[in-house]
Design brief:
The complex is a heterodimer of chains A (153) and B (111).
Chain A (H helix, E strand, L loop, with lengths): L3 E8 L5 H14 L4 H22 L7 E8 L3 E8 L6 H7 L21 H9 L2 E7 L2 E9 L8
Chain B lengths: L2 E6 L2 E6 L3 E2 L4 H13 L4 E5 L5 E2 L1 H13 L6 E4 L3 H9 L7 E3 L2 H8 L1
The chains are: A alpha+beta (153), B alpha/beta (111).
Chain lengths: 153, 111
């Protein structure tokens, strides 16, 4: 199936992540998502990029964070790739639904979760989230199905 | 990050003036807002009406405010647009924070 694609590389700086967010949001509005849907797509990609900068690169600038977006007629595909440290197993458990970052007592303020929330958001919003680490590189892929465009009359 | 504060009776209203409240804004937010909370204001209202993008780092900073407030029930959020409010629901934080549609309603409830 034919897709329109864009690849964007930013430096591993939290201050540059908004550029990725703006791109994703604009593309999502263009394909017909409403404000909240576009925000949630942007949120997932920003969370993935933040995680990469914080955990893969330990917040050190000077490394590449590669983001791609592919627009298919029936889905959006996003990826965020790096060549830093892979996501730890305990955080990946959130992605595999073996653990949850939102299973907490809202009245126990000292026990509220501080890790895994980004992956939990991606898992909730996206239809599919996969993570692969091999050959010194890591890649998080997210897929969101979108309604097919109405046929032209 | 730019913020604006004003007192409405006993309530300190903190309005975030930036459209984006993400990971890169958290340090600035904490440096400005946490001291205001630790001053002992009896009630705090965080006005998000100008915010169009909030991520989990921004949410975590707001959680720090809640923990710093001696009376957590007296810190609330107002003005969150639907997209931003959806993050609170996704993370179940809608169970943790109190929400009001407008600053006026938040002030009235917290006073």
């Amino acid at each position: 199936m034919q897709a329109n694609r864009i690849h964007l590389t930013i430096d591993s700086s939290l201050a540059d992540v908004f550029l990725v967010g703006l791109l994703v949001n604009s593309a999502c509005r263009f394909v017909g998502l409403d404000e909240t849907e576009a925000y949630q797509m942007e949120l997932c990609v920003v969370e993935a990029a933040n995680n990469t900068i914080r955990h893969a690169y330990n917040e050190q600038a000077g490394h590449e964070v590669a983001v791609s977006l592919a627009i298919f007629p029936d889905r959006l595909e996003f990826s965020v790739a790096d060549r830093g440290s892979p996501i730890s197993e305990d955080v990946l458990a959130v992605l595999r639904r073996e653990a949850s970052a939102t299973d907490y007592d809202p009245f126990a303020l000292d026990q509220l979760p501080r890790v895994g929330m980004g992956l939990e958001i991606m898992r909730e919003v996206m239809d599919q989230v996969d993570y692969e680490s091999s050959g010194g590189g890591n890649c998080l892929r997210m897929t969101k199905r979108i309604p097919a465009p109405a046929p032209e009359v | 990050m730019k913020i604006e504060t004003h007192k409405a009776g006993s309530v300190l209203v903190i309005r975030i003036l930036e459209a984006r409240f993400g990971a890169d804004a958290v340090d600035s937010f904490n440096q400005q807002v946490l001291p205001l909370i630790r001053e002992g204001n009896p009630a705090i209202l965080l006005d998000l009406s100008a915010v169009s993008f909030l991520d989990s780092s921004g949410l975590d900073a707001m959680l720090s405010c809640l923990k710093a407030q001696n009376r957590p029930g007296h810190l609330a959020v107002c003005g969150a647009r639907e997209s931003v409010a959806s993050l609170f629901r996704l993370t179940r934080m809608d169970r943790v924070f109190r929400f009001f549609p407008t600053s006026e309603e938040g002030v009235a409830a917290l006073s």
